[in-house]
Amino acid sequence: MLNDGYIARLLNMPRQILTPIVLFFSLTGVYLISFNTFDIQMMVIFAVIALILKLLSFPMAPMILGFILGGMMEDNLRRTLMISDGSLSFLWERPITLTIMSVAVAVLLVPAVQALRSRLKAVASPA
Questions:
Q1: What does the alpha-carbon distance between residue 76 and residue 69 come to, in Å, rounded to a whole number?
Q2: pLDDT tens-digit profile of 42-71?
Q3: Chain mean position to CA 56
Q4: Which secondary structure element, helix H or strand E, spans residue 16, and what is its range?
Q5: pTM of structure
Q6: What is the 3-state secondary structure (H, E, C) of 64-126?
Q7: Alpha-carbon distances of 97 from 9, 84, 92, rounded to whole Å
Q8: Backbone torsion region of residue 126, taken as left when φ is above 0, otherwise alpha when ψ lies between -120 and 50, otherwise beta
């Protein structure tokens, strides 16, 4: 088993050496999984998208969390829809789900309403 000290020393390598090594192993690993060049192209496209988002200062943690939790949420929504025979009424039938949905809608709408109010206030009283 590897000692943690060796892994920590790898991170002390200069970025000019570490980046090509990580890129080589990433490309090799993606290709060796399915022997398909389309997977490599998809990896490059997603890397370019991630780079653009990083340059535009988008936070990466919520996006990674969304990718991880999105599949689980989709599976559970599908399971719940199967249990309720395709009806979305489970979202407001019980008090706890109604409360959670109301809070989620409020969290999404309050910033938009505040921005609209401040914009209307700025237009109404030009300084």
A1: 11
A2: 999 998 998 899 899 988 888 889 889 999
A3: 15
A4: helix 15-34
A5: 0.52
A6: HHHHHHHHHHHHHHHHHHHHCCCCCCHHHHCHHHHHHHHHHHHHHHHHHHHHHHHHHHHHHCC
A7: 49, 14, 6
A8: beta
